[in-house]
Amino acid sequence: MFSRITRRQFSTTPSTAYKTVVLGAAGGIGQPLSLLMKLNHKVTQLSLYDLRNAPGVAADLSHIPTNSVVKGFTPDNEGLAGALKDADVVLIPAGVPRKPGMTRDDLFKTNASIVRDLAKAIADNAPKAAVLVISNPVNSTVPIVAEVFKSKGVYNPKKLFGVTTLDVLRASRFTSEVLGTNPVQEKVTVVGGHSGITIVPLLSQTKKKDFDPEVRDALTHRIQFGGDEVVQAKQGAGSATLSMAQAGARFANSVLSGLAGETDVVEPTYVDSPLFKSEGIDFFSSKVTLGTEGVKEVHGLGEISSYEQDLINKAKETLIKNIQKGVTFVKENP
Ligand SMILES: NC(=O)C1=CN([C@@H]2O[C@H](COP(=O)(O)OP(=O)(O)OC[C@H]3O[C@@H](n4cnc5c(N)ncnc54)[C@H](O)[C@@H]3O)[C@@H](O)[C@H]2O)C=CC1
Ligand SMILES: O=C([O-])CC(=O)C(=O)O
Predict the structure, then answer these.
(1) Which among 231, 241, 242, 322 is the best mutation to test ligand 2's pocket, defined by most ligand atoms within 8 Å of the CB?
(2) Is residue 333 part of a domain?
(3) Where, by residue number, does substrate bind (predicted)?
(4) Predicted confidence (pLDDT) per residue in 141-187, tens digit
(5) Alpha-carbon distance values, 129 to 59, 156, 319 (Å)
(6) Which of 53, 60, 88, 326 could join 144 in a cystine, given CB atoms 3.0 to 4.6 angstroms apart?
(7) What is the mean pLDDT of the chain?
(8) Contact 197, 311 (CB under 8 A)
């Protein structure tokens, strides 16, 4: 167990000192994500939890001379309660990944109960933490966490995030490949959700703005189905792990920056959103300003093209079903 003294000791060097927890830390995403969190100077305590092997991953990372103490937990070794105590940020990459031929929704039957049970433990042990959900299907697992938190009276919509950053990374990369530009400077806002047609890149808001329709269609499709490229290339051995770790670490760093009081921290993320609530869509991804309490402001979509409006209309039809599926699951399987 980390003591408060340890936390204070380390908080003197950086201006911030946060405990970050990775649930599913020994997995394909969990290991590189834990490495990247070990390299983040805002993190002073890093707790790694998995059904097995988390203490080994923690021992390995603990030799890296950065400003954090790492500890591994399993069900037999202080368990979730030990891992989660005093957490500021909890990342959840626990659950099964896709194989070729599967949709993210096909993962629901296995991952829904995993995420529900982890959410119960977070509600009991770290109800004030920011919770970053990576486990698929994100469109449904985020509503699952929200329902569990509501049932336990600890739901804070400002602290629950579906991580859609990988869509943003892909959009930058793929757009730069088409335009021959520097991917680092190619910023693309991606809105909606995190699966197939619910992923909507707003290419009309990029510097290029006007794409040839054929190029635009192909680029949009590649961004929407980028995950499938990796699933197919891995031939049954899983889905994106390394690019996802980078995406998760970038988003976690933004959340930590917001908590630390940095200004103008803006990332697209799937949150409890006012944008389409009147249509029964409680969760939607758009640009969000992150602050000391989590979500500070959910941005509107801005000016979009009629092509993008059509994509959003289609995305909403799927999203409403995905969200309802998560809500119903928790009501029927509390
Ligand atoms: N949001 C996104 O953009 C992305 C999400 N994903 C999703 O992330 C999830 C994890 O993917 P991978 O790391 O590749 O899978 P993996 O199978 O390599 O690792 C998953 C880990 O979760 C652990 N786990 C399972 N049940 C658990 C529980 N109850 N408590 C704690 N740990 C548990 C497993 O032991 C394993 O170590 C999948 O659902 C995948 O679809 C993957 C890529 C991108
Ligand atoms: O495709 C998958 O199943 C994993 C994922 O969410 C992604 O890579 O975007």
Answers:
(1) 231
(2) no
(3) 98, 104, 136, 170
(4) 999 999 999 999 999 999 999 999 999 999 999 999 999 999 999 99
(5) 25, 10, 26
(6) 326
(7) 95
(8) yes
Residue 70 lies in a domain: yes
Q: Mind giving me the DSSP string for 172-195?
A: HHHHHHHHT--GGG----EEE-SS
Distance 4 CA to ligand 2 centre (A): 38
> Which residue is closest in CA terms to ligand 1's atom 35?
51
The residues, ordered by sequence, that sit 6+ positions from 183 with a Cβ below 8 Å of its Cβ are 172, 173, 175, 176, 177
- CA pair distance 108, 288, nearest whole angstrom: 26
The residues that bridge with 161 in the sheet, in sequence order, are 132
ipTM (interface predicted TM): 0.99
pLDDT of residue 3: 43
pTM metric for this prediction:
0.96
Quote the ligand 2 centre to 10 CA distance (angstroms).
36
CB 57 within 8 A of CB 38: no
Q: Are residues 265 and 230 in the same domain?
A: yes
In a domain, 331, yes or no: no
For ligand 1, whether the C-beta of 141 sits within 6 Å is no
